Amino acid sequence: MRQVVVAGIGQTVFGKFLHRGVRSLAEEALSSAIADSGIGYEQIDVTYFANALSGLVTGQETIRGQVALRNTGVMGRPIINVDNACASGSTAFHLAWLSVASGQADVALAIGAEKLTHEDKSVTFGAFASGVDVEERARLQMEAPQGHSVFMDIYAERARRYMEFSGATPKDFALVCVKSRQAASMNEWAQFRSPVTVDEVLGSRMISAPLTLNMCSPIADGAAAAILVSEEFAQRAGAPHVYVKACALVSANKDGLGPTCAERAAKAAYDTAGLGPEDIHVAEVHDASAAAEIMLYERLGFAAPGRGVSLLRAGDTSVGGRLPVNPGGGLLSRGHPVGATGIAQIIELTTHLRGTAGARQREGAKAALAECSGGQLGADSALAAATILTNFK
């Protein structure tokens, strides 16, 4: 397998843009990635386009990438549409990496774009519910909740179990939100940039106990793109060298039995990269809820079982800490336009490894990990991706 380099990155601001479509968002992100890389549209051999919910929110099915990119210079060459729930962007990145690493392509584009805002919010929430096995929902009589995604009920149930196991409290989940907003206040691409207090988080509307509104990832629109190239191409093009050392993708075990997707994806990535959790300097994780971030500290090996909350309380995972997690604001504050999320994580980590993250920079960052999960199957996510990036070969 060849060495693969992240040569270009670009994204839109994430937010609610009722009058913008997927095409507009995708074009902006792609244009930014092209400008960042210095690579021409005509040099892109293959494109992987991530979008999870357009069919249900906008009605556009089957040829989503071709429609979104029809006015760009990537047309005429392969465009592969990728739908893998919240890990759609991570899956597109995985496939782009595989294309370059295998020698199939010298330049591959991973781009994700999502339009989630709708005049009728029930359309958006109904679309999210498609990430659960519909037969399982019917068997368990999981009724679609009013005013929020079914996933927040799932995350709330996990949060309650984690509280019993670890001694974590709703205040700890609020601390995650405070940390997230503080990080996002330094990120021009984030949806929510205003700081919040613990009391404000705890006092926001209850969604599904113990999760309040601020503890749940928001509805967002946006796009993100990454251009991957072979090391040889990067040397010729003069692209900055951020290496993809590992890129693992796994699905749930039968009935969602453990070990979890996140644990297995992370182990596969660590093994491939020849690194361990102790070598990671900065991370982006799938904080669809505040409680999920703390649990992922443990599943990714950053803390022992039940001890993730100690990392949070000590400030280790805050900007300026030993291991900043979600320094771009994460899903909670940067926003969660599903198809774009996994690639936005890669963009955030790439800026740290380039040393260009500004006030949120993790000084001396050499190795970074991104984890993104998607869907729900039994007791676990339906899939998870883990990617390790470094600025050394």
Tell me about this structure.
It is an enzyme of class 2 (transferase). Keywords: Lipid transport, Lipid-binding, Transferase, Transport. One of its GO terms (biological process) is lipid transport. Residues 251-381 form the Thiolase C-terminal domain. The relative contact order is 0.20. The chain has 393 residues and is an alpha/beta fold. The chain has helices at 22-37, 54-57, 64-68, 88-101, 121-128, 134-139, 150-166, 170-184, 198-203, 231-237, 261-273, 290-299, 308-314, 330-333, 338-354, and strands at residues 4-11, 46-50, 79-82, 107-114, 206-208, 211-212, 222-230, 243-251, 282-284, 367-374, 383-390. The protein is globular, with a radius of gyration of 19 Å. The chain folds into two domains: 4-118 and 220-242, Thiolase/Chalcone synthase (Peroxisomal Thiolase, Chain A, domain 1), CATH 3.40.47; 148-216 and 247-390, Peroxisomal Thiolase, Chain A, domain 1. A hairpin with an 8-residue loop joins strand 10 and strand 11. The protein is built from 15 helices and eleven strands. It has a five-stranded mixed sheet. A four-stranded mixed sheet has the order 8-11-10-9, with helices on both faces. Strands 5-6 form a two-stranded antiparallel ribbon.
